[in-house]
């Protein structure tokens, strides 16, 4: 890596302990028994520390969807052809995808970043075409990315987070699209957590039991091919990751560095979150984990990050959809925290001392 990625060494922003304490003190005075709103109270307090104000708000949401193809599809690990990635890029931009619907409902800004697909996306406006290559190389047999491609993908994520901050975003939601990316995410997690492929390989877009076994075999081959980088975050990301996973990791690190809270989505996004925390320790202090994915390996990743997901709805779509679904929960936490009366304001007797 070159000086273009020296920014990865910049520590995350410091959380505002005084603002979080002020929020906790306010919570103790609201007209309810202490702790009776459960995680909603903790969310408001954490957001206060992130935003540096006693009463946080979450009006402005920025969603970014990173897309890229994966050469490992050549090993027969997906039910869907790679043409779907480019087709879905167009669907994101024209408003037909699940994340597009969610963004409209939330009043969120959304951008689509195509880092490199095998097929040429249909000509539609609203897509940033970065063209790092026609997808990654086959990670089972060679490094997925060149050092230059990895740098560009990480920097694409960084620039995305910085754009979000300049636009006034109060939370960053990262999504992804890439046929074959559950294989890449599982291989990456196996390398960083020293787990067996059978522990992380799942059905992805609908593989049957035989397909999942084959996926685990392909991941095992990849781990053997790249044994030299096992446990190394940057090396594992280059050899086993994807353009979109690297883009997410770069965005998460940059968001933490500039003090922008992040809502992490499902399995693939959490693999990027793990990479981000390993590359820049403390980054995870800026994460909320939106949900528990139905993809079996997600539980292992969440445990490694000591994460407590907000929702468990059986979702496994990706695109940032689970993270977007959790936004109203964070907004409600802010509204309750700011809008409820204190005992003194309401003239209600508080807890006896």
From TrEMBL:
Catalysed reaction, written as an equation: 5,6-dimethylbenzimidazole + nicotinate beta-D-ribonucleotide = alpha-ribazole 5'-phosphate + nicotinate + H(+)
EC id: 2.4.2.21
MF (Gene Ontology): nicotinate-nucleotide-dimethylbenzimidazole phosphoribosyltransferase activity
Active-site positions on this chain: 319
This protein's pathway: Nucleoside biosynthesis; alpha-ribazole biosynthesis; alpha-ribazole from 5,6-dimethylbenzimidazole: step 1/2
Keyword match Methyltransferase: no
NCBIfam families: cobT_DBIPRT, PRK00105.1
HAMAP family: CobT
Family of this protein: Belongs to the CobT family.
Record-linked PANTHER family: NICOTINATE-NUCLEOTIDE--DIMETHYLBENZIMIDAZOLE PHOSPHORIBOSYLTRANSFERASE
Name under which the protein is recorded: Nicotinate-nucleotide--dimethylbenzimidazole phosphoribosyltransferase
Source taxonomy: Bacteria, Pseudomonadati, Pseudomonadota, Gammaproteobacteria, Chromatiales
Gene coding for it: cobT
């Amino acid at each position: 890596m070159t000086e273009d990625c020296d920014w990865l060494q910049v520590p995350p922003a410091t959380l505002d302990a005084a603002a979080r304490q002020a929020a906790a003190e306010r919570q103790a005075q609201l007209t309810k028994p202490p702790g009776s709103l459960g995680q909603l109270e903790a969310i408001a307090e954490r957001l206060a520390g992130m935003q540096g104000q006693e009463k946080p708000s979450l009006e402005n949401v920025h969603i970014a969807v990173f897309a890229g193809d994966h050469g490992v599809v050549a090993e027969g690990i997906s039910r869907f052809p790679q043409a779907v990635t480019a087709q879905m890029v167009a669907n994101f931009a024209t408003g037909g995808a699940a994340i597009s619907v969610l963004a409209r409902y939330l009043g969120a800004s959304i951008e689509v970043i195509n880092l490199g697909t095998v097929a040429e996306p249909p000509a539609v406006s609203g897509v940033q075409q970065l063209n790092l290559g026609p997808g990654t190389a086959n990670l089972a047999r060679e490094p997925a990315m060149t050092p230059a491609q990895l740098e560009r993908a990480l920097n694409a994520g960084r620039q995305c987070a910085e754009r979000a901050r300049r636009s006034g975003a109060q939370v960053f939601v990262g999504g992804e699209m890439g046929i074959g990316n559950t294989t890449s995410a599982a291989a990456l997690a196996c390398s960083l957590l020293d787990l067996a492929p059978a522990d992380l390989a799942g059905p992805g877009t609908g593989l049957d039991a035989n397909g999942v076994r084959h996926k685990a075999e392909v991941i095992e081959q990849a781990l053997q091919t790249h044994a030299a980088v096992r446990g190394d975050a940057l090396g594992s990301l280059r050899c086993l990751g994807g353009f979109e996973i690297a883009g997410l990791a770069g965005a998460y690190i940059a968001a933490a560095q500039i003090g922008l809270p992040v809502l992490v989505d499902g399995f693939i996004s959490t693999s990027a979150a793990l990479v981000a925390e390993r590359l820049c320790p403390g980054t995870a202090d800026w994460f909320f984990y939106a949900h528990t994915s139905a993809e079996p390996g997600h539980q292992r990743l969440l445990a490694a990050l000591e994460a407590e997901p907000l929702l468990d709805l059986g979702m496994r779509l990706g695109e940032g959809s689970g993270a977007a679904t959790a936004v109203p929960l964070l907004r409600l936490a802010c509204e309750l925290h700011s809008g409820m009366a204190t005992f003194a304001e309401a003239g209600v007797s508080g807890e006896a001392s």
